Every structure is written in structure tokens, then in C-alpha cells.
Amino acid sequence: MCGRFTITVTIGLPERFGVAHCKVPLLPRYNIAPSQPVPVITHPFGSIRECQEMTWGLIPSTSKDPTHSPRPINARAETLHERSTFRPLLSSRRCLIPATGFYEWVRSGKSSIPYYIHCKNGDFFALAGLWDAWKAPDGLFRKTFTIITTRPNPLVARYHDRMPAILLPENEARWLDFMTPSNKELKELLSPYPEEYLTAHRVSLAVNDPMHEDASLIKRDEGGVLPV
DNA sequence: CCAGACGTTGTT
DNA sequence: GTCTGG
DNA sequence: CCAGACGTTGTT
DNA sequence: GTCTGG
């Protein structure tokens, strides 16, 4: 699945994702966790692409009291069209979440061992997401999003049975297009990202604590005997 | 019809 | 908004 | 995702 | 065990 990710590089991010003027602060992030603000790319109908901050963990616009409702951080690609929470968002609330890597954990007894998965060449990639705006009692809108998950490619399957839906660069515009993809096309867009572009290595247990945020988190850690 | 919920993950 | 349960 | 808390009352 | 917070 996808419960933590990174944006280790911010130089060139607006250009890479077709955003002319990015109004949100772009800082390197080494441990992005649910509930945190994250830069998200949208393409409003009849306008240009935008990059805005949204909170990770979806609060549907119809939510009455989000305090005590689930805020899904992931949505299964296989069942998007049959989930009442996600289906209404498929037509006009698709978004891209820029990233340079993500973490997956392997449970080992009482502890969880983190692995870092990223592009071999260090490129950005775009996670496929859905967002919504919820009107708070104060009248302000809270924008939130969820990351779509899909089957793992063989590389990620060594660590987990799910992985985030990473879009092929040539498909990113289609995902944002106001012409909603058919179910068939959605399935294709959200298929597992090819493993040959990715690599993975074990990292420090320091990643487990979302308070830890420094660049050393993504360094290789020769800690043990678990899978590469 | 209306009322009420609406998620994923991993673990047992 | 849409689906499920009663 | 993992880590950490998990309560109420009355008083300052 | 389960919920909340980051």
C-alpha cells in the first residue's frame, strides 16, 4: 500500500508537472505521513494546471462530522467504481501527487522494517489520487486527498501485496483530463508501474516515527537478514 | 420509500 | 453523491 | 503507514 | 484492543 512517501527534490518540480507558478511552499520532504499537508496537482476544467496544498486523508464533501469518520489514505483501484465514497470523485476530482519515492514495511515480529522504493534514475513520478473539498463549520473549505493503490509489480511484491498507483508520464495528462476515462481505460492507467524503472533498499527504523524528517532517512541501511 | 453509512491495511 | 439495509 | 495514547472533574 | 495524531 502506500502510507508514507517522499519528495526529496523540489527543483524542477513545477516544470516537470506543468505548473507555471507554484504558490505553495516546496521543501524537500523525507517522511510524508497521513494528515500532513502535501502539494497536489489538479487541472481545473477550462484552466491551467494548479499546484495546491491538500491534507492526506480524504474527507468527502458530504461528511457531516469528519472528526469521528474514517479518512481513507488509500483507495483500491480495483473497486474505485463501486465504492460510494470514491465513485463520485472519479469524474472530476482526479489529481496527481508528485513524489520521488515511497516506503513499504515488512513486519518482523514486533517491529516493522522499512524499505525505500524509488526511481533508479532519481526522477519524479506522479501518484494517482482523488481529492475533495469539505466545508467546515467556519465556512472554509478543507481540501483532502487519497492515494490509489494497485497490485504490486514483482519488485514491490517482495515487500508488500499492494503499491501506490504510479502513472506513466505519458498518461499523466490523461488522468487529469476533464474527459473521464472509461472503466477500461482507468484499469489501464492504474496498472502496476513497470519494475524496471524502480529500485528498493532497506532504510533505518528512524523512518517509522513520522516526527523524523531528515535526509538520512533514505540512506541504505545494512541492518539485517530480511529481503534485499 | 427513508435512514445511515460511506476505507484500507494487516493481523488474529 | 451513491450504495446498503430496513 | 507507525507511534502513542487511551479520563473526568474542578480549579488555576 | 482501538482510536488519534503526525
Structure overview:
With 228 residues, the chain is mainly beta. It has a single domain (5-213), classed as hypothetical protein yedk fold, CATH 3.90.1680.10. Helices cover 9% and strands 33% of the residues. The chain has 4 helices and 13 strands. It has helices at residues 13-16, 154-157, 172-176, 183-189, and strands spanning 5-7, 29-32, 37-42, 50-56, 74-76, 94-99, 101-108, 111-119, 125-135, 141-150, 163-164, 166-167, 198-202. Strands 3, 4, 5, 6, 9, 10, 11 and 12 form an 8-stranded mixed β-sheet that branches. Strands 2-1-7-8-13 form a 5-stranded antiparallel β-sheet, with no helix packed on it. 36% of the residues are buried. The mean pLDDT is 94. It binds 4 DNA strands through strand 5 and strand 7.
Oligomer: single chain
- What CATH architecture would you give? Alpha-Beta Complex
Radius of gyration: 17 Å
**CATH third-level topology:** hypothetical protein yedk fold
Strand fraction equals: 25-35%
Tally the helices.
4
Total count of strands: 13
Q: Can you identify the CATH superfamily?
A: SOS response associated peptidase-like
Task: Briefly note the structural class of the backbone.
Answer: mainly beta
Q: Count the domains.
A: 1
Task: Summarize model confidence as the mean pLDDT.
Answer: 94
Inertia-based shape:
globular
How would the blueprint of this fold be written?
Layout: E1 5-7, H1 13-16, E2 29-32, E3 37-42, E4 50-56, E5 74-76, E6 94-99, E7 101-108, E8 111-119, E9 125-135, E10 141-150, H2 154-157, E11 163-164, E12 166-167, H3 172-176, H4 183-189, E13 198-202
This protein binds 4 DNA strands through residues 1-4, 31, 33-36, 58, 60-63, 68-76, 82-89, 103-105, 107, 112, 114, 146, 149, 160-162, 207-211.
